[in-house]
Amino acid sequence: MRQPILGKRTFLKENTDHSKAFEKYMNECYERVASSVPLFTGRHLMVNTKGNDFKSPQKLFKDKLNFKIANSRDFISENLNETSFTDADALIYDELGIALIDGNEEQIRMLEAESSDFIIQPERVVYVPDDLPVSINIPATWGLNVTRVVDSNFTGRDVKIAVLDTGFDANHPDFCDREVVAESFVPNETSKDMHGHGTHCIGTACGNKDSQGFRYGVAKSANIYAGKVLSNEGSGAQSWILNGITWAVKNNCKVISMSLGSKIYPGEGYDLAYEKAAKFALSNGAITVAAAGNDSRRSFKQYIPVSSPANCPSVLAVGALDSNLNVADFSNRSINPESQIDIAAPGVSIYSSWIMPTRNRTISGTSMATPHIAGILGLLCEKYPEGTIYEIKEELRNMARRLPLPGIDVGVGLAIAP
């Protein structure tokens, strides 16, 4: 199977001139569609709309298209990675009712014509949302204080939390006494984080303290599962995300955190492949959480819909708040039908771990809000070990602090720790 076409992202560093840097960032966001950064990989995902059975198209793959087929059930003793099926033209995800197809335009048209119960959609390129400039005068641990994490008696002990991102810096001294299970789903790259975003998100969700004793992590005793689904340049193929979700579920993770996404436009629906993956996770006792996206420019009255996969009904979409509990200027909004912000969390000037030698860094984004929610869910899973995943989600909603802000921006409000 040929490698997907991926784009390279640029990232803003901290900048004391916040307004100028932010204006530059937002201009880049709105020009991205017209740039060389791709939105799709060139491959396709075929989704069964009525179940998981792929017998009918599988016969079509073989008899009419002469496809070489790989199947997820062939990878029982190893994790699903594209390097394992380079000769295949199609990979069938048995658990999800989805197939990844590497076919030409004529073959795709034939599949569409002869497979009435299936939809075929382009495979998306997925990106780490851009890092945003920060204000340097906000206390480093404000997010843990406002969500009452620092007052909680729970630490996430024995709860498995998966963070699907750019990997993890296994040599990070803040995690020297922690066991981290790491796996890469990016072809030809190890699980080592060479970007920084993944290590930052893991720090917020599951970290503890820095060298000075400042605590920045929510579920400080949770079992960490680091799935590398985005490359060292911060981009990835949609199928890599599906591989990571499947891996997390098979490892009995209770929470799956994804600070990543693809831009969605007004009127565009959610991605059925992601929705099936999130439902698969729910059916196996795992909650999927994703960043709403950083594409809005609220100070200029410009609002962008919730990103994919956060816009899926079975995924908890997380919006970002600043230290004054206002909606972050960049945080996306519930605009499209069935694509709602579910809850909000601290996402401006968030201090956490970063790849060495930087060690720790403060950045902003819905990416930073998402692992707050993942960590709090981990605390709830510890508090209610016999609770169903639906009961845990309902408790998260019930405990949220209501805010005098529109639900289309913050959902039920600010997440609060048990």
TrEMBL record:
Keywords: Hydrolase, Protease, Serine protease. Signal peptide: none annotated. Belongs to the peptidase S8 family. The lineage of its organism: Bacteria, Pseudomonadati, Bacteroidota, Flavobacteriia, Flavobacteriales. GO terms for molecular function: serine-type endopeptidase activity. GO terms for biological process: proteolysis. Residues 156-409 form the Peptidase S8/S53 domain. It comes from the Bacteria. InterPro entries: Peptidase_S8/S53_dom, Peptidase_S8/S53_dom_sf, Peptidase_S8_Asp-AS, Peptidase_S8_Ser-AS, Peptidase_S8_subtilisin-like, Peptidase_S8_subtilisin-rel. Pfam families: Peptidase_S8. The active site is at residues 165, 197, 367. This is Subtilase family protein.
